[in-house]
Design a protein that fits this description.
Layout: H1 3-24, E1 35-38, H2 52-55, H3 67-77, E2 83-85, H4 98-102, E3 109-114, H5 121-130, E4 134-138, H6 144-150, H7 156-172, E5 178-185, H8 193-202, E6 206-211, H9 220-223, E7 233-236, E8 239-242, H10 252-255, E9 258-259, E10 264-266, E11 279-280, H11 286-290, H12 293-305
Parallel strand pairs: 1-2, 1-9, 2-3, 3-4, 4-5, 5-6
Antiparallel strand pairs: 7-8, 9-10, 10-11
Helix pairs in contact: 5-7
Length: 324
């Protein structure tokens, strides 16, 4: 009976310590994270120009997560986690042991995000039967020219076939898998949103618009959509800035850390290049890192002045009136 109380009790402690820290400006941590994002690989088959991995701007080493490392992390965190994301940078389905990772997230709500190029009939059936809870498939256009303007080297027919494969398998096996088609909105594809929505409705998938993070500011005018609700940026004093007041707090540092493929613990999903390494799971337990001095110092820096941290300046946490 007691083990069923661990997760809600931990969530309460995490929430309480976050609120207390936000109000006092003094970092306090109680409990463990309720969610974790794990990078299976930072390799990708596409060359998306605003993606750290696809653009080639990523400076850290490339590789695949060791399955034993993942098992170690899950063994420690499983009692506390409500959900886990098996993606960060790169395409998770490129991992040779992709399905073995899915089999090690039992009783944790698990989400995978994919560019949709590996959803063969066989893989789709495996996904549906794996117990995965949610599959996000990126679809940023309804014709090849528009789609590949951002998803460079991608093939829209392959992705659409993959969507049909996995939604068909879900129906055949009467699966509860949630499928979400996600559109990263930019100036070149915003006129095709109705067509992408129609496709999602046709295959009975959820549909979500996602605003685009633009890291190369010289390209911001090229990608920035005209629809303000899906634009993270505004023009201020002749310069594009994020529509975010950047309040001096961030729930991610109390609830949802990120683990890179090589076992580094970083603060959040905006640290694409792992510039703020807070610990190494090949050397320490997660709890030692979570409660450790590097994490405490980083939390303090955010509470003292979030806008002073580089990765926070393009962050959507605290962004209002924009689909993020």
């Amino acid at each position: 009976m007691i083990r069923y109380l661990i997760k809600p009790a931990n969530a309460f402690l995490a929430g309480y310590s976050y609120l207390k820290s936000s109000l006092t400006g003094k970092p306090e941590i109680m409990g463990m994270p309720v969610s974790v994002t794990t990078e299976l690989t930072n390799m990708c088959n596409l060359r998306c120009p605003e993606c750290a991995s696809g653009s080639g701007r990523m400076q850290r080493d490339r590789g695949y997560m060791d399955l034993d490392l993942f098992k170690k992390v899950m063994e420690e965190l499983r009692p506390y986690l409500y959900n886990t994301n098996l993606y960060f940078q790169g395409e998770p389905m490129l991992h040779p042991l992709f399905f073995a990772f899915l089999s090690n997230t039992e009783k944790i709500y698990t989400t995978v995000s994919t560019n949709g190029h590996f959803l063969s009939e066989e893989n789709s059936e495996k996904i549906v039967m794996s117990g995965l809870n949610k599959l996000i498939i990126s679809l940023d256009g309804i014709d090849q020219e528009t789609y590949s303007s951002y998803r460079v080297n991608g093939n829209i027919n392959t992705v659409i076939d993959g969507i049909k494969n996995v939604t068909g398998a879900r129906k055949r096996f009467n699966s509860s898998l949630k499928i979400e088609i996600q559109c990263l909105v930019n100036k070149l594809n915003e006129h095709q949103i109705p067509g992408i929505r129609d496709l999602a409705n046709m295959v009975k998938a959820e549909f979500r618009l996602k605003s685009m993070q633009i890291t190369e500011r010289k390209n911001i005018g090229y990608w920035l959509p005209l629809n303000r609700r899906v634009s993270r940026y505004k023009l201020k004093n002749g310069e594009y800035v994020i529509k975010n007041s950047l309040p001096d707090r961030c729930a991610r540092l109390w609830f949802n850390p990120v683990i890179t493929w090589d076992g580094k613990v970083i603060p959040c999903c905006f640290d694409k290049n792992a510039e703020y390494i807070l610990g190494d799971l090949k050397q320490d337990t997660f709890r030692d890192i979570w409660d450790g001095p590097k994490y405490r110092i980083f939390r303090k820096s955010i509470l003292s002045g979030r806008s002073m941290t580089e990765i926070c300046r393009n962050c959507s946490s605290g962004l209002r009136g924009v689909l993020t």
